[in-house]
Amino acid sequence: MVWSWIWPTAPGSSVSSPTIDFANTVAGVVPGTGIHPGRLHGDLAARFRDAHAAAAARRRAGEMGFFDLPADRELAVRTRAAAAKVAGRFDALVVIGIGGSALGTAALTDALLPPYWHELDAASRGGRPRLHLMDNPDPESVAALLGLLDPETTCFNVVSKSGSTAETMAHVLVSWNWVESALGPGAIRDRFVVTTSPGRGSLRKLADDHGLCALDVPHAVGGRFSVLSPAGLFPAAATGIDTDALLAGAAEMAERCSTPELVKNPGGVLATLLHVADTEMECHVHVFMPYADRLRGMAYWIQQLWAESLGKAVDRAGRLVESGPTPLPLFGAADQHSVLQLLMEGPRDKIVVFLGTEAPELDVDVPARVADELALAYLGGHTLFDLLDTERRATAEALRRAGRPNLAVTTERLDAHAVGSLLMLFQIAAVYSGELYGVNPLDQPGVELGKKLTYGLMGRDGYPRPEVPRSDWRWRV
Ligand code: PA5
Predict the structure, then answer these.
(1) Does residue 265 have its Cβ closer than 6 Å to ligand 1?
(2) Does residue 101 have its Cβ closer than 6 Å to ligand 1?
(3) Given this model, what pLDDT does residue 371 score?
(4) Cβ–ligand 1 contact at 235 (below 6 Å)
(5) Coil, strand or helix: which one is 92?
(6) Average pLDDT of the segment spanning 277-304
(7) Ligand 1 centroid vs 165 CA: distance in angstroms?
(8) Percent of all residues in the chain with a pLDDT value above 90, rounded to a whole number
(9) Alpha-carbon span 199 to 317, nearest angstrom
(10) Among 85, 264, 382, 451, which one carries the catalytic annotation?
C-alpha cells in the first residue's frame, strides 16, 4: 500500500498554499508511537466535528473577528491610505507595541521584507522606511535606537488594543518627548499613527486630543489574533508588502478550514495531531522549527499564539485543568548544532513541527572547483538551499527513526499569499485547539495579575500598592 500523507494544495489553486506532511506522526511509520490513521476517520473526526461546531458558534456570536479580517476591504483600504502617507516620506518607522501588538508585525516583516532591510539604502528599499520594533522597555536598547534615528525622518506607529499597556505607553511618552524636544509640538501630528480599539482607551484619547491618524483594531479581534488587522497591515503596507496577496492567502486558508470534515481541514488536522501528541503521546513540548530565516518571526509569533491561547488554569466549565502544551521555537539548521541532541535522545516529550518552503526567492551555488581541491566534493555543485532543505528532511527522518514524531508545514514559495495562508492556518488551529482542550483560546487571565501588580507598584491611579515581599537575605548567596 502506498501511503500519501502529503496535504495537497487546494485543487485549482494557482498560488502557493501550505502543505502539511504528517506521515511521521502515523503509527507504523514512526516506530513505537504514533496515531493510528483510522482514527482520522473515527473518534478524532467526531471530536473535531464538535470542536468545529463550537468554534463556528463562537464565530457566529461575534467572538472571533480575525476570521473576517481578510474580507474587510474598507479597513484594508483605509490602512493602505494611511500607510501611503508614511511610505515615501520617512526614513524610519518605529512600531511601538508588545506581545500580540508586535509579534505579528515581526512575523510579517521578517517573512516578506528582504533580509537585512535595515542595511539597505533608500533606493534599494524603494524609498520605503526602515522598520524598528520597540517592545521591551529596556532603557539601553531604547536609548540606543533613538540615538541612531533622526526625529525629522522618523515616524512612530503605536499599536495597543487596550490602549493602556504600561510598556507601550511608556515608550509613547519617551518618543513623544524625543520628537517634541527636537522639533516642537507641531511635529507630533504627522509623526504618530496609532492603532487601537475604536472609541476607548488612553491611546485613542491621545489620538483624538492631538488629531493623530488613528486606525482601528476591531473589538472582536484580540491582540494575538490581530496580525491581519491594521496592527500588522499598516507596517506591512508602509514597507511595501503586498497586503492584497496577504489577505487573499488568508481568505483562501479560511475557506479550506471551513469544512467540518477533519481530513479535509488543514487547521483541524494540525490542531488534532498536536492535541493528541500532548494529551495521549506525552509530547507536551511543541517545537516549531523553521528552516528559513524569513520564518523566524513566525516561530515566535506561533509561540505566543500557542502559549497564551492554550495555557489555561480552568476549562470552559470552570474546572481546574492547568493545561496547555509548551511551545518552543528552534531554528534549522543552526539548532541542529545546539538542541537536536536533546530532541533525538532526551525525554520523549516533544513533537517537532518543521516550517519551510520548497523554493527560496534566490539561491546560492556552492562552487565545485575549490571544493574538489579541499576534498569537499559532495558540497560542490549543490546550492545552499539544497543543503538547508536536505538537512530539514534528514533531521525529520532521523527523528522518525528514533521514534520521535514530527510533521512539516511547507509552502511552494514564501510569498505574501503563502504567508497570509500560514498566519490564518495557525490562528485557526489555535482556536480549534482551544475547543479540543476545552479552554477559552481568546483570553489570557494569567497575564493580568502581573500587570495589576506592576500598575500598583508604579503608582497608577485606581490600583492599590501591593505588598511584594522584599528578597530575604537568608535565601541569597
Ligand atoms: O495577545 C494578547 O492579547 C496580548 O499579548 C497583548 O497583545 C499584549 O498584552 C499587548 O496588549 P495591548 O495590545 O492591549 O497593548
Answers:
(1) no
(2) yes
(3) 60
(4) no
(5) strand
(6) 98
(7) 8
(8) 88
(9) 32
(10) 451
Residue 160 Cβ < 6 Å to ligand 1: yes
In this predicted model, what pLDDT tens digit does every residue of 22-81 receive, in sequence order?
Answer: 999 999 999 999 999 999 999 999 999 999 999 999 999 999 999 999 999 999 999 999
Confidence of residue 372 (pLDDT cuts 50, 70, 90): low
Candidate from 63, 159, 165 with most ligand 1 atoms within 8 A of CB, to mutate: 165
Active site residue 451: yes
pLDDT for 252-265, tens place per residue? 999 999 999 999 99
Q: How many Cα atoms within 13 Å fall on the side-chain side of residue 261? A: 4
Q: Would you say the CB of residue 232 lies under 6 angstroms from ligand 1?
A: no
Can you name the residues that pair with 130 across neighbouring β-strands? Answer: 92
308 given a catalytic annotation: yes
Mean pLDDT of the chain: 94
Pairing status of strand 320-323 against strand 326-329: unpaired
Q: Which of 308, 312, 417, 435 is catalytic?
A: 308
Q: Is the model's pTM score more than 0.90?
A: yes
